[in-house]
Each structure stands twice: as C-alpha cells, then as structure tokens.
Amino acid sequence: MLSTTSEYALRALACLADQPPGTDILGRDLAKAAEIPANYLSKILLTLRNAELVDTTRGSGGGYRLHKPAGEIFLIDIVELFDGMSRNKSTCFLQHQKTCSSSSACGVHVLWVDVQARYLGFLVSTPLSALAPQSTPLAGISSQAANLAVAGDQK
Question: What is the pLDDT of residues 58-104, one digit of tens each?
Fold first, then answer.
C-alpha cells in the first residue's frame, strides 16, 4: 500500500528516530543504514526538510536529525507527503486521484471503504517511534562498525 518513496522515507526516519536527541547523521551513513540509494534519499530528505520533519546542519559534524521527537510524528505525516493520501479525503481504490463515494462508487467501493478507514486509522494513530529499530546508534561510527555491533548483539 506504500509507494517505494514512502517506504524509503519511513525507513530513513526510523533510523533517525533511533539516534540520541540532537545527533546528526551524514546522508551517506543514513543511506547505508536504511539501505536506500544515496541520490534517491537526498531528494526524500529535501521533501522531509521542507515539511519540517527533519533538520539539516551543514559542515563538519553536520547531517540530518529529526525536527521534533519521534513520538510527535505520525506515519500519516510522511505518507501524505509522498503518496497523495489524505487524512481528510477518501480516494478511489482504482483511481487514486478520483474521489470515491457511495453516489459515484467504483467497482470495489463497498470493500475498499472499510480497508481504507482501517489503514488510515493505523497511519493516523501510529507514531514514528513505533518504527525505530532500537539498535546501536550510528552517529560517529562507520556503517561497518555499526554492522559489527549489531552482529555482536545477535550472538
């Protein structure tokens, strides 16, 4: 149900949410940790910055960090940016740009209305903090060192 862009944005934000507050992560380290192509991630991060979900710091020691606590960011805040889904307007299952209603229903409207309501409820009520991997913070260490630390935790 998520576009690739929304999935990547959620993965990147989940990694940022797992960092100590105020800790910046370089874009290349974030791309490696979230397994997202760096060029693709930079475009996603620009959108997230413009939506005031992430902050950026230039220069030595700079990078990306969450603009506010992960518990105050909800999944709908991200999905709305990239998938055109709205918390205020239902969409048609077959044509996402078209409004679907009982009076002008698509072929699956009766089934879709319930699924969409549940999905939207999940997105609206689930904070980003629920996705944070709760692993070793990446700030200040290389991705290789982070992978070794995670591998050591699994033993």
Answer: 888 789 999 999 999 999 999 999 987 767 666 666 665 556 666 66
Residue 56 backbone dihedrals phi, psi, to 5 degrees: -125, 150
Among candidate residues 140, 143, 128, 130, the one with its CA nearest the CA of residue 22: 140
Structure tokens at 154: 């699994």
Question: Is pTM beyond 0.85 here?
Answer: no
- Separation of CA 55 from chain center: 15
Contact 107, 96 (CB under 8 A): no
Q: What are phi and psi of 99, to 5 degrees?
A: -80, 135
Q: Which structural domains are found in the chain, ordered by start?
A: 1-73+129-144 (1.10.10.10), 85-126 (no CATH)
